[in-house]
Design a protein that fits this description.
This protein has 8 helices and 8 strands. The chain has 220 residues and is an alpha/beta fold. It has a domain of 152 residues: P-loop containing nucleotide triphosphate hydrolases (Rossmann fold). It has a 5-stranded parallel β-sheet with strand order 2-3-1-4-8, with helices on both faces. The chain has a 3-stranded antiparallel β-sheet with strand order 6-5-7. The protein starts with a strand and ends in a 6-residue tail after the last helix. The structure holds adenosine monophosphate.
Protein backbone atom coordinates (compact mmCIF):
# COMPACT_ATOMS: atom_id res chain seq x y z
CA UNK A 1 0.00 0.00 0.00
CA UNK A 2 1.23 3.49 -0.86
CA UNK A 3 -0.70 5.96 1.27
CA UNK A 4 -0.46 9.74 1.54
CA UNK A 5 -1.66 11.47 4.71
CA UNK A 6 -2.89 15.00 4.09
CA UNK A 7 -3.90 17.57 6.66
CA UNK A 8 -2.83 20.85 8.22
CA UNK A 9 0.02 21.08 10.74
CA UNK A 10 -1.42 19.66 13.97
CA UNK A 11 -4.01 17.45 12.23
CA UNK A 12 -2.33 14.36 13.71
CA UNK A 13 -0.58 13.03 10.60
CA UNK A 14 2.52 11.85 12.50
CA UNK A 15 0.50 10.03 15.17
CA UNK A 16 -1.75 8.36 12.60
CA UNK A 17 1.14 7.50 10.26
CA UNK A 18 2.71 5.47 13.08
CA UNK A 19 -0.58 3.60 13.67
CA UNK A 20 -1.17 2.82 9.98
CA UNK A 21 2.47 1.72 9.60
CA UNK A 22 1.99 -0.74 12.51
CA UNK A 23 -1.30 -2.04 11.03
CA UNK A 24 -0.03 -2.48 7.47
CA UNK A 25 3.70 -3.22 7.86
CA UNK A 26 4.49 -0.21 5.66
CA UNK A 27 7.24 2.26 6.53
CA UNK A 28 6.24 5.81 7.47
CA UNK A 29 8.24 8.64 5.92
CA UNK A 30 7.84 12.22 7.20
CA UNK A 31 9.69 14.88 5.22
CA UNK A 32 9.64 17.22 8.26
CA UNK A 33 11.41 14.51 10.33
CA UNK A 34 13.97 13.98 7.54
CA UNK A 35 14.75 17.71 7.56
CA UNK A 36 14.95 17.85 11.38
CA UNK A 37 17.29 14.80 11.42
CA UNK A 38 19.50 16.43 8.76
CA UNK A 39 19.56 19.62 10.82
CA UNK A 40 20.49 17.72 14.02
CA UNK A 41 23.35 16.00 12.15
CA UNK A 42 24.55 19.35 10.80
CA UNK A 43 24.46 18.22 7.15
CA UNK A 44 24.35 20.54 4.13
CA UNK A 45 20.70 19.51 3.54
CA UNK A 46 19.82 20.47 7.12
CA UNK A 47 21.52 23.86 6.75
CA UNK A 48 19.68 24.54 3.48
CA UNK A 49 16.31 23.68 5.05
CA UNK A 50 16.77 25.49 8.37
CA UNK A 51 16.01 29.06 7.26
CA UNK A 52 12.73 28.00 5.62
CA UNK A 53 11.63 25.82 8.52
CA UNK A 54 12.27 28.56 11.07
CA UNK A 55 10.00 30.91 9.13
CA UNK A 56 7.26 28.34 8.62
CA UNK A 57 7.85 28.32 4.85
CA UNK A 58 8.13 25.36 2.52
CA UNK A 59 11.65 24.21 1.71
CA UNK A 60 12.15 24.64 -2.08
CA UNK A 61 10.79 21.78 -4.20
CA UNK A 62 14.14 20.98 -5.79
CA UNK A 63 15.67 20.14 -2.39
CA UNK A 64 12.57 18.44 -0.96
CA UNK A 65 11.77 16.28 -3.99
CA UNK A 66 15.38 15.06 -4.28
CA UNK A 67 15.44 14.14 -0.58
CA UNK A 68 12.11 12.28 -0.85
CA UNK A 69 13.21 10.41 -4.00
CA UNK A 70 16.42 9.29 -2.26
CA UNK A 71 14.42 8.05 0.73
CA UNK A 72 11.86 6.27 -1.48
CA UNK A 73 14.70 4.42 -3.23
CA UNK A 74 15.73 2.66 0.02
CA UNK A 75 14.97 -1.10 0.17
CA UNK A 76 12.59 -0.81 3.17
CA UNK A 77 9.93 0.90 1.01
CA UNK A 78 9.14 -2.30 -0.91
CA UNK A 79 6.28 -3.37 1.37
CA UNK A 80 4.56 0.01 1.24
CA UNK A 81 4.96 3.60 2.37
CA UNK A 82 2.91 6.03 4.44
CA UNK A 83 3.84 9.57 3.45
CA UNK A 84 3.41 12.24 6.10
CA UNK A 85 4.00 15.87 5.06
CA UNK A 86 4.62 15.16 1.38
CA UNK A 87 3.34 16.23 -1.12
CA UNK A 88 2.71 19.77 0.11
CA UNK A 89 1.98 21.46 -3.23
CA UNK A 90 0.88 20.46 -6.72
CA UNK A 91 4.44 20.35 -8.12
CA UNK A 92 5.41 17.82 -5.44
CA UNK A 93 2.26 15.75 -6.11
CA UNK A 94 3.16 15.57 -9.81
CA UNK A 95 6.79 14.67 -9.04
CA UNK A 96 5.63 11.90 -6.69
CA UNK A 97 3.37 10.40 -9.36
CA UNK A 98 6.23 10.41 -11.88
CA UNK A 99 8.71 8.85 -9.41
CA UNK A 100 6.31 6.04 -8.55
CA UNK A 101 5.38 5.50 -12.20
CA UNK A 102 9.04 4.84 -13.04
CA UNK A 103 8.96 2.02 -10.47
CA UNK A 104 5.57 0.73 -11.75
CA UNK A 105 3.99 1.85 -8.48
CA UNK A 106 1.20 4.32 -7.71
CA UNK A 107 -0.43 5.99 -4.71
CA UNK A 108 -3.34 3.77 -3.64
CA UNK A 109 -5.15 5.98 -1.14
CA UNK A 110 -4.92 9.52 0.21
CA UNK A 111 -6.30 10.09 3.69
CA UNK A 112 -7.24 13.70 4.39
CA UNK A 113 -7.46 14.29 8.14
CA UNK A 114 -9.79 17.24 8.59
CA UNK A 115 -9.54 19.38 11.75
CA UNK A 116 -10.95 22.91 12.43
CA UNK A 117 -8.39 25.74 12.61
CA UNK A 118 -8.96 26.65 16.33
CA UNK A 119 -8.31 23.03 17.26
CA UNK A 120 -5.08 23.00 15.19
CA UNK A 121 -3.81 26.07 17.09
CA UNK A 122 -4.70 24.49 20.44
CA UNK A 123 -2.94 21.23 19.56
CA UNK A 124 0.24 22.83 18.19
CA UNK A 125 0.71 25.22 21.10
CA UNK A 126 0.56 22.29 23.59
CA UNK A 127 2.67 19.86 21.53
CA UNK A 128 5.89 18.25 22.82
CA UNK A 129 7.99 15.93 20.67
CA UNK A 130 10.67 13.36 21.53
CA UNK A 131 14.08 14.56 20.34
CA UNK A 132 15.13 10.96 19.79
CA UNK A 133 12.18 9.03 18.23
CA UNK A 134 9.91 11.98 17.25
CA UNK A 135 6.90 10.58 19.19
CA UNK A 136 4.42 13.40 19.76
CA UNK A 137 2.76 14.30 23.11
CA UNK A 138 0.28 16.98 24.15
CA UNK A 139 0.44 18.63 27.57
CA UNK A 140 -3.33 18.18 28.09
CA UNK A 141 -4.53 15.49 25.64
CA UNK A 142 -1.67 12.97 25.90
CA UNK A 143 0.95 13.91 28.52
CA UNK A 144 3.96 11.61 29.02
CA UNK A 145 4.03 9.36 32.11
CA UNK A 146 7.19 11.14 33.35
CA UNK A 147 7.34 14.90 32.69
CA UNK A 148 9.78 15.79 29.92
CA UNK A 149 10.56 12.15 29.01
CA UNK A 150 9.32 10.00 26.14
CA UNK A 151 7.23 6.97 27.23
CA UNK A 152 8.58 4.89 24.35
CA UNK A 153 12.34 5.50 24.42
CA UNK A 154 13.04 7.75 27.43
CA UNK A 155 14.28 10.51 25.11
CA UNK A 156 14.05 14.20 26.01
CA UNK A 157 10.82 15.99 25.02
CA UNK A 158 11.04 19.45 23.47
CA UNK A 159 8.77 22.04 21.88
CA UNK A 160 9.53 22.49 18.19
CA UNK A 161 10.68 26.07 17.54
CA UNK A 162 8.24 26.27 14.62
CA UNK A 163 5.33 25.46 16.98
CA UNK A 164 5.56 29.03 18.38
CA UNK A 165 2.33 30.93 17.76
CA UNK A 166 3.63 33.37 15.10
CA UNK A 167 5.33 30.60 13.09
CA UNK A 168 2.27 28.37 13.46
CA UNK A 169 0.11 31.10 11.90
CA UNK A 170 2.52 31.30 8.93
CA UNK A 171 2.54 27.50 8.53
CA UNK A 172 -1.26 27.46 8.47
CA UNK A 173 -1.31 30.25 5.84
CA UNK A 174 1.15 28.28 3.71
CA UNK A 175 -0.97 25.17 4.18
CA UNK A 176 -4.21 26.84 3.01
CA UNK A 177 -2.49 28.53 0.03
CA UNK A 178 -0.24 25.73 -1.20
CA UNK A 179 -1.24 22.39 0.28
CA UNK A 180 -5.03 22.61 0.26
CA UNK A 181 -5.11 22.39 -3.62
CA UNK A 182 -3.44 18.97 -3.31
CA UNK A 183 -6.68 17.72 -1.71
CA UNK A 184 -8.56 18.47 -4.95
CA UNK A 185 -5.79 16.90 -7.02
CA UNK A 186 -6.33 13.55 -5.27
CA UNK A 187 -10.11 13.96 -5.13
CA UNK A 188 -10.13 14.26 -8.92
CA UNK A 189 -7.87 11.21 -9.16
CA UNK A 190 -10.55 9.29 -7.19
CA UNK A 191 -8.13 8.45 -4.35
CA UNK A 192 -9.28 10.74 -1.53
CA UNK A 193 -10.71 9.49 1.76
CA UNK A 194 -11.80 12.31 4.07
CA UNK A 195 -11.71 11.49 7.78
CA UNK A 196 -12.91 13.59 10.72
CA UNK A 197 -9.72 14.33 12.69
CA UNK A 198 -11.37 15.63 15.87
CA UNK A 199 -11.57 13.58 19.08
CA UNK A 200 -8.94 11.29 20.58
CA UNK A 201 -6.06 9.84 18.56
CA UNK A 202 -7.56 6.36 19.07
CA UNK A 203 -10.94 7.47 17.68
CA UNK A 204 -9.29 9.01 14.62
CA UNK A 205 -7.21 5.83 14.08
CA UNK A 206 -10.39 3.72 14.15
CA UNK A 207 -12.00 6.00 11.55
CA UNK A 208 -8.93 5.85 9.29
CA UNK A 209 -8.57 2.06 9.50
CA UNK A 210 -12.31 1.65 8.81
CA UNK A 211 -12.17 4.04 5.84
CA UNK A 212 -9.11 2.27 4.40
CA UNK A 213 -10.74 -1.15 4.88
CA UNK A 214 -14.00 -0.39 3.15
CA UNK A 215 -12.41 2.14 0.79
CA UNK A 216 -15.38 4.48 1.10
CA UNK A 217 -14.72 7.84 -0.53
CA UNK A 218 -16.23 10.67 1.45
CA UNK A 219 -17.52 13.56 -0.60
CA UNK A 220 -16.56 16.30 1.90
P1 LIG B 1 6.30 19.17 9.44
O1 LIG B 1 7.08 18.40 10.46
O2 LIG B 1 5.66 18.27 8.41
O3 LIG B 1 5.33 20.15 10.05
O4 LIG B 1 7.37 20.02 8.62
C1 LIG B 1 8.17 21.01 9.26
C2 LIG B 1 8.77 21.95 8.23
O5 LIG B 1 9.60 21.20 7.32
C3 LIG B 1 7.75 22.63 7.32
O6 LIG B 1 7.20 23.80 7.93
C4 LIG B 1 8.63 22.96 6.11
O7 LIG B 1 9.48 24.06 6.37
C5 LIG B 1 9.49 21.70 6.00
N1 LIG B 1 8.84 20.68 5.16
C6 LIG B 1 8.38 19.46 5.54
N2 LIG B 1 7.85 18.80 4.50
C7 LIG B 1 7.96 19.60 3.42
C8 LIG B 1 7.58 19.51 2.05
N3 LIG B 1 6.96 18.42 1.58
N4 LIG B 1 7.86 20.56 1.24
C9 LIG B 1 8.51 21.65 1.69
N5 LIG B 1 8.87 21.82 2.97
C10 LIG B 1 8.61 20.82 3.84
Amino acid sequence: MYIVLLGAPGAGKGTQAAVIARETGAVSIATGDLFRQALARGTELGKQAQAYMEKGLLVPDEITIRMLEDRMAAPDTGSGVILDGFPRNLAQAGALDRTLQKQSRAIDRVVYIKVPEEELLRRLSGRWVCRNCQSPYHEVDSPPRVAGRCDRCGGELYQRPDDRRDTVKKRLQVYFAETAPVIDYYRQAGKLLTVDGTGSAAEVSRRIIAALKDGKFASV
